Amino acid sequence: MTIWIDPPAWPAHGRLWSHLVSDTSYDELHDFAAAQGLPSRGFEGDHYDVPEERYAALVSAGATPVDGREVVRILQRSGLRIQKRRHERVVRPVPDAPWLPPGSRADVITSRQDEAPANTVVVRLAVLRGADLLVVGRPDGGWDLPSRRVVEETPADAVRVLVAELLGTPDALSPRLAGYVRNTVPRPSPDYPWPTPKACFAVYTDHLVGAAGDDAGSWLPSGQWATVLGERHWWPVLERRDLW
Fold it and tell me: How many domains does the chain have?
């Protein structure tokens, strides 16, 4: 069990940055980071971004220095590396996700990409009106975002159909991608209905100007979002809307 760090060589925000990783678990990485006072916002899904002025202290605290290429190899060998596209951030990795078949994982990713991943199977729509969020009832009695399965159309086309179903016309909104949950399930399972090994569940968003019909859903005040929706797998996308 070792914590590793590469030299500060990655420019951003007027300074250089290092990557701090574990070869064992995210928990080990979080424990080390917390003990050294690193802010949680520095966590990027499979590593912490560390400013250059912290490098020497982290090495003194026990982080083993290696070059940048070796950090990547360490993550790959450990199985902890998470793939993402440019302008995306992993806000919640869930190894051994309990709602998936054994040996699977889920990653919640915010995105500023124009398009959802090609393996998107469901689209959800976070419609904001002021500080309120449009929600619809679930069969189990809870609440969720309006959603639609992606069958033969593209995710963007599925969202347009969903907007039309909710608001009467596809032109009522111009949704953009906010993020997605990516399931990684190595092999098919009788109790798992989605494609393997990858299936994505995208969240789009837009602000509604004007009224919506009474049958569109219910409007949830922002102060209740976490209480009502905090258990949904996609919740970290909405929680980190500062990254949209």
Answer: 2
- At 5-56, the pLDDT tens digits run 999 998 988 999 999 999 999 889 999 999 999 998 888 889 999 999 999 9
- Written as six digits, the tokens of 17 are 């940055």
Are residues 112 and 212 located together in one domain of the fold? yes
Residues 227 and 113 in one domain: yes
Both tokens of 209, joined, read 């100007």
Q: Which domain holds residue 57?
A: 3-78
Query: Can you spell out the DSSP letters for 85-128?
Result: -TTEEEEEEEET-TTS-TT-EEEEEEE--SS--TTEEEEEEEEE
Q: What is the pLDDT of residue 140?
A: 85
